Amino acid sequence: MSADHAVTVRPGTATDIEEGLTTLSAAEARRIGRASGDEASRDRMRRRLAGPDTFFFVAEHATGGPIGLAAGMNGRRDGGTGPAIPGLCHITMVAVRPERWGEGVGGRLLRAVLSHGRALGYDRFQLFTHADNVRAQRLYESAGFRLTGGTAVSDDGGSIVHYLWAPE
Predict the structure, then answer these.
(1) Do residues 4 and 103 make contact, with C-beta atoms less than 8 angstroms apart?
(2) Is the pLDDT of residue 4 over 70?
């Protein structure tokens, strides 16, 4: 893994949402071997990124646009539709363009979300990932996330596993 000093991680803005979603789609397509999601799914992600309790970061290379994305928002009860859970940040949409995998970009994005979330007062962070996404699981475990044993079914029908990060 080489650190690319030409990559910066910065807070995302409304103007980053479309390219961020394109990055997310590219990463997912490489991971599962085909394009995923539809326009309704993309609209849902667009609304989440623009939500009042959402913050996100983008990684970008000096020679081009965004190459990665990661977002945080209030963790909520009832599978994300209920009231906010005090102190819990839900991390979502962690993605890096496939041609940049293995360069440490995902770790930098994840650290940015954790740092900013802690500054906002969150003391616990959760996320879900596909049960077969070994690359993501390695990233999350290397950052100190631990499997909780919780499972669910994703919007696309896949099995997902729950991770939690909390200070020792």
Answers:
(1) yes
(2) no
